[in-house]
Structure formats: structure tokens, C-alpha cells
Amino acid sequence: MQTHAHRDRIVPRILLSASVALFGSAGCATKIDLDPADELQADMEIGSLIRQAQDAWNTGDAEAWTALFADEFVYLPPGAPAVRDPDSLAAAFVSRLDDRRWEVMVLPEDFEVDRDRAVAHLEVRGFSVGAAGDSTVVDGKQLAVFDRTPFGWRIAMLMANENR
Asked: Which one in 19, 45, 99, 129 has a CA-CA gap of 20 to 30 Å to 29?
């Protein structure tokens, strides 16, 4: 019998944190304000992480993209099952690229940092081009949850959706 202890630990923790960060505490948690210098540092580091993810996507670098994720993560690609392990993450990345050349920009819309956790609403815009020269507009959104780890900020949860 397969256990889901890993998933059962991380998903509720991430969803609660995302809910608190996005919708306020509603009396269930207290937001701790960071020192402005710490918040600026976190903003810069997470902004760099977002740019690294964008660059990895545009260059098709699965190794660089998967390195941006925390040890415990959940990736929810559009129209596909949840991904929770590094091998499946790399396979999901390659599958999403679909042998196309991508030129996308990932633009943070809303962003909230609360100590060692951050939540961002990201807009993804650009295009992809297939081997036959066919072009597809990319217009999507993502909800990203970031955790501060001993190795810096990493993606703990990434939920992606396409605007259609």
C-alpha cells in the first residue's frame, strides 16, 4: 500500500500558508512583518529565482528548472496530475516544452513575504514556435509558493493555468 505521508504533510501546510498570505489571517494566524531590509532582500532573491525559472524555460534547461524547487514540493501543471518528485518534475518539464522554442516572460503581479514563506501571483506571457514554424501565443497565470531554505529561496508549490 502506498502512503502519502509526504503529500499529507506538505499540501495542507502550503495551502494554509497560501490562504493566509492571499486572503488574510481571518483570525487564524498572525502575520509577522519583516524588517524592511529583510523584506527587500527576500524580494530581490525571489525575483532572481523567478528570472532563473523564466530563463530555464526559455532555454529548455530541465536541470536548471528542477534545481529551483524545494526538497518537498508540489507542481500542478495545467491539465496534468500533480508532480511531487524530482524525476517526474523533469519529465513534466520536458513534456510541457513539447519540442517547441519558448519565449516567455514571467511577471509578478501580487507578492507577499511572511518570514520564511512567500506567495506570488505570476502572469506568463509570450509565444512558442514549433519545428514547422507554427507559433502559439502563451497567456497564463501561476500561483507560486516559495520557502526559504538553507540553500536560499526555492519553489514549494507551483500551480499553473492557461488563460483561454
From this structure: 45
